């Protein structure tokens, strides 16, 4: 680049801005436009995204429900969703928000079956507390988390009558991955996970429990105390003992490393990279931040072929919208089956992307699953976050800046210029092909 | 949906029922002459696939998902069973429509009874899955994935669409209901989901005004040079595909079977099926099925709330009437359009309900009774005949026919091999005439 060549300088600047926006899209839940404007280089953006110096925001205080009936009012999930989405769009702890969502998707637990919004909220706080900490600690806490115990039937898994739901999923989805265990390992692990209950006030068994309401507890009489042999390790394994066996396998650390690489980089890591990153995670005693640092330091992270290879999810689109043009009223609102309500809650529901409500144990859809006609058409529904036409920057460039869209095709620019109404222009911009990828 | 699950159900949700092959075979031997359903397969099933052949072109299956757990016992009423009035002291159906001197249909199911007498209804009794889980969520996940016990991320009809259609035709599978169904989620295909005759239209805020205009503009965005191998290129393709699907759907939904736009049924046009009305959903389905290129699969989801823990008698009667009205009109429309030989209707529900009423309703049960309806169906009763003297350990109609046999039969109608979709051991059952 020649310092006296203004065109070359401007091209270089554009390239740097594109890189900065890319880094923020990957390492946070959405690029905050002011941050993109203030950050000079990709390295600065990485440093800023990984900076956890600012203390975490205090979550809203949500009182435990008095009884079973009060606890089931589905409307109570509204506050947690609204607060969480607000954190996604404005928390200064960028990587934390990316990871909190990643872990929710990884340990997918759904309100549809758990039915207690309060317990979903408690699980969220557990994920948030551990999101940038130790995966090993998080796995152990989630395994005895009340919502998880309800979701994967841990509370019906007893010495007398085994339920293998959690025992299977913990190996297939949360740790080793398919093909790294046998059916007998599912049996043995499930035996080790027996004995856990949840104190839900008003339920018959609650009277017999001494742990506080809405917490889980280990009840020795329900536990299978016998000897188990899990993946070659024999002993009187209990929950943590079994989880330690799973954590000791390379398959677990390598699977977590590969999955996080896929999320943060967007491409498939080579086998060699997976082995290297798995070792990083193990050597760090499963601390997540060293793994994140190793992933962003990998040559693949800023490589050209990693640009725009991920489909932007409906939730990431909503976060981007809120960041670009802050809504004045209710952001999420009621997420209900019927009727109109303010906010984008029902749009997320239509699109199958409501936090706390993953479609199944495998988590939220991604990739091509986000490109079906239903998903494409109802992307426009996200504009419901504005009850009336929002105030949008008057120029196309001003709008694209707010959306952190740097490389936009001439065709898209032409369409946006031809639309005279800035608010309708916003709707077109966030459904454009360029905005649908990240 | 009122998802209410009692503590005892949670505590014991994995109790084992009659799930061994031997037990099922026994039930079949004791059953009706027509009973060929169950696993392992009866040898006679082999003739069934011959029914399909090339004739499957242009065929459609309409699935009707009765969400919440439909009560098999008050749908196909064992009214001559001495246990019936004892188990259902307040709920018992007064005047069932007799089918064979032993059982009758709920009095609201008038059109269904007529079709039965015409030999067009296969009644499949005892349908469920092994190790029944009484949770709605877990049961639905099993039915949607057809992988009971460990449901994966894809739906069974999604896997069918993956193999039969791929990404090319997003209208090969159309869900009618408030949102997409996990049953139609594939890995290499798209299904479309609509909630009314407005088809693929955004539910955008009022200030966006003319969304048709926005959608028309849509396809002009994105780099014309973007390769189809890049994700952005795929998005552009998806937009084009969506535009085509929107236009095709609009043509199908706005015209009646004769292609006459003026003959619109105004009620169906205005209908928003998100309130769960089967009548409205069937009206939308009738338009899809009588269109020039009908979908292979139409899936009516979340119809009504069949989770009748309380207020059951009145609620149940209303649900049955709504279902029957929709079904009756649908079948008449399909006949009038000359499509009767190409279309079958199959009912689904995640489980049946407890035989013993709870005072004002019924709790979650095990096996259900389902219907395969169509002009090419060989009518009659199949499966394990409903009897209230041999309930399972929890007082439910026992599981006898694996639901995947029902699925395999529907796949056979579509000329698809069930094995890659459902796994081994499930084959189309011979309920269709050639």
Mean of residue pLDDT of chain B? Answer: 82
Cα gyration radius of chain B (Å): 22 Å
Label the overall shape of chain A.
globular
* Largest beta-sheet details of chain A: 2 strands, antiparallel
Please give the share of residues in helix of chain B: 25-40%
- Whole-number tally of structural domains of chain B: 1
End-to-end Cα distance of chain A, whole Å, is 28 Å
| Strand order of the biggest β-sheet of chain A | 1-2
The sequence of SSEs of chain A as H and E is HHHHHHHHHHHHEEEEHHHHHHHHHHH
Oligomeric state: heterodimer
**SSE run of chain B:** HHHEEHEEHEHHEEHHHHEHEEEEHH
Structural class by sheet pairing and helices of chain A: mainly alpha
Largest inter-chain contact set: A-B, 69 and 66 residues
User: Helical content of chain A, roughly?
Assistant: 40-55%
In DSSP terms (H or I, runs of 4 or more residues), the helix count of chain A works out at: 23
Calculate the mean pLDDT score of chain A and round it: 93
Number of strands of chain B: 12
SS element count, helices of chain B: 14
User: Whole-number radius of gyration of chain A?
Assistant: 23 Å
In short:
By secondary structure, chain A is an all-alpha fold. Chain A is built from 23 helices and four strands.
Q: Can you describe what's shown?
A:
- The complex is a heterodimer of chains A (438) and B (434).
- Chain A is built from 23 helices and 4 strands.
- By secondary structure, chain A is an all-alpha fold.
- Chain A has a domain of 57 residues.
- Chain A has a two-stranded antiparallel ribbon. In chain A, strands 3-4 form a two-stranded antiparallel sheet.
- In chain A, helix 8 packs antiparallel against helix 9 and helix 14 crosses helix 16.
- The longest helix of chain A is centred in the N-terminal third of the chain and has 22 residues.
- The radius of gyration of chain A is 23 Å and the shape is globular.
- Chain B is α/β, with parallel strands linked by helices and 434 residues long.
- The longest helix of chain B has 25 residues.
- In chain B, strand 3 and strand 4 form a beta hairpin.
- Chain B is globular, with a radius of gyration of 22 Å.
- Helix content of chain B is 32%, strand content 11%.
- In chain B, strands 1, 5, 6, 7, 8, 9, 10, 11 and 12 form a 9-stranded mixed sheet that branches.
- Chains A and B meet through helix 11, helix 18, helix 19, helix 21 and helix 22 of A and helix 1, helix 6, helix 8 and helix 9 of B.
């Amino acid at each position: 680049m020649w310092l006296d060549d203004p065109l070359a300088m401007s091209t270089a600047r554009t390239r740097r801005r594109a890189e900065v926006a890319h880094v923020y899209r990957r390492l946070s839940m959405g690029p905050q436009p002011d941050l993109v404007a203030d950050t000079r280089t990709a390295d600065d953006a990485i440093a800023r995204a990984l900076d956890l110096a600012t203390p975490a925001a205090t979550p809203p205080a949500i009182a435990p429900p008095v009884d079973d009936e009060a606890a089931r009012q589905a409307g109570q999930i509204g506050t947690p969703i609204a607060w969480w989405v607000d954190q996604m769009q404005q928390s200064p702890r960028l990587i934390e928000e990316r990871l909190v969502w990643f872990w929710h998707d990884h340990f997918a637990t759904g309100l549809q079956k758990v039915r207690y919004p309060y317990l979903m909220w408690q699980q969220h706080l557990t994920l948030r507390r551990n999101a940038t900490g130790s995966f090993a600690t998080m796995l152990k806490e989630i395994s005895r988390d009340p919502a998880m115990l309800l979701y994967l039937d841990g509370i019906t898994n007893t010495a007398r009558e085994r339920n293998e739901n959690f025992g299977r999923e913990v190996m297939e989805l949360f740790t080793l991955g398919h093909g790294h265990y046998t059916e007998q390992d599912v049996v043995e692990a499930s035996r080790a996970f027996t004995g856990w209950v949840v104190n839900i006030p008003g339920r018959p068994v609650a009277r017999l429990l001494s742990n506080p309401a809405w917490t889980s507890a280990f009840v020795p009489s329900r536990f299978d105390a016998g000897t188990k042999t899990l993946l070659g390790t024999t002993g009187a394994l209990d929950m943590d003992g079994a989880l330690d066996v799973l954590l000791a396998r390379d398959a677990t650390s390598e699977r977590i490393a590969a999955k996080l690489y896929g999320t943060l980089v967007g491409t498939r890591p080579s086998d060699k990279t997976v082995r290297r990153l798995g070792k990083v995670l193990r050597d760090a005693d499963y601390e997540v931040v060293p793994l994140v640092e190793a992933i962003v330091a990998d040559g693949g992270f800023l490589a050209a072929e990693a640009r725009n290879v991920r489909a932007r999810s409906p939730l990431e689109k909503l976060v981007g919208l809120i960041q670009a043009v802050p809504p004045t009223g209710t952001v999420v609102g009621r997420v209900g089956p019927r009727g109109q309500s303010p906010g984008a809650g029902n749009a997320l529901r239509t699109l199958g992307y409501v936090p706390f409500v993953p479609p199944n144990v495998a988590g939220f859809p991604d990739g091509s699953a986000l490109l079906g006609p239903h998903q494409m058409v109802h992307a426009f529904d996200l504009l419901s976050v504005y009850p009336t036409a929002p105030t949008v920057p008057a120029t196309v460039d001003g709008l694209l800046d707010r959306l952190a869209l740097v490389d936009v095709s001439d065709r898209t620019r032409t369409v946006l210029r031809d639309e005279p109404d800035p608010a309708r222009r916003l709707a077109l911009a966030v459904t454009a092909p360029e905005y649908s990828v990240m | 949906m009122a998802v209410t699950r009692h503590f005892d159900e949670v505590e014991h949700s994995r109790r084992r029922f009659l799930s061994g092959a031997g037990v099922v075979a026994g039930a079949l031997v004791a059953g009706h002459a027509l009973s060929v359903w169950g696993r392992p397969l009866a040898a006679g099933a082999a003739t069934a696939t011959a029914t399909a052949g090339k004739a499957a072109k242009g065929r459609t299956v309409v699935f009707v998902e009765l969400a919440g757990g439909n009560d098999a016992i008050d749908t196909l009423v064992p009214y001559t069973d001495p246990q019936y009035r004892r188990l259902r002291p307040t709920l018992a159906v007064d005047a069932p429509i007799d089918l064979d001197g032993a059982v009758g249909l709920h009095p609201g199911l008038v059109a269904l009874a007529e079709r039965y007498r015409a030999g067009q209804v296969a009644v499949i009794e005892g349908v469920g899955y092994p190790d029944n889980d009484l949770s709605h969520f877990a049961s639905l996940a099993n039915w949607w994935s057809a992988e009971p016990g460990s449901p994966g991320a894809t739906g069974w009809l999604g896997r069918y669409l993956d193999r039969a259609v791929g990404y090319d035709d997003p209208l090969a599978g159309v869900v009618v209901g408030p949102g997409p169904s996990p049953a139609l989620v594939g890995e290499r295909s798209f299904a479309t989901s609509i909630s009314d005759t407005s088809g693929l239209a955004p539910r955008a805020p009022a200030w966006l005004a003319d969304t048709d205009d926005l959608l028309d503009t849509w396809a002009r965005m994105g780099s014309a040079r973007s390769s189809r191998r890049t994700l952005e290129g795929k998005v552009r393709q998806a937009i084009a595909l969506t535009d085509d699907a929107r236009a095709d759907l609009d043509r199908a939904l706005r015209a009646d079977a004769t292609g006459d736009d003026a003959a619109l049924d105004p009620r169906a046009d205005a209908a928003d099926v998100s309130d769960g009305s089967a009548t409205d959903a069937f009206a939308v389905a009738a338009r899809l099925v009588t269109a020039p290129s009908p979908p292979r699969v139409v899936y009516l989801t979340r119809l009504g709330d069949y989770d009748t823990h309380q207020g059951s008698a009145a609620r149940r009667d209303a649900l049955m009437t709504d279902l029957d009205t929709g079904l009756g009109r649908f079948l008449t429309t399909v006949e009038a359009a000359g499509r009767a030989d190409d279309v079958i209707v199959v009912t689904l529900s995640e489980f049946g309900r407890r035989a013993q009423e709870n005072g004002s309703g019924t709790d979650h049960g095990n096996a259900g009774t389902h219907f395969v309806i169509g002009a090419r169906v060989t009518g009659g009763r199949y499966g394990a005949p409903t009897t209230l003297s041999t309930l399972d350990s929890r007082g439910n109609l026992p599981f006898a026919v694996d639901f995947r046999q029902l699925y395999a039969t529907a796949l056979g109608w579509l000329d698809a091999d069930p094995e890659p979709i459902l796994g081994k051991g499930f084959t189309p059952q011979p309920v269709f005439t050639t």
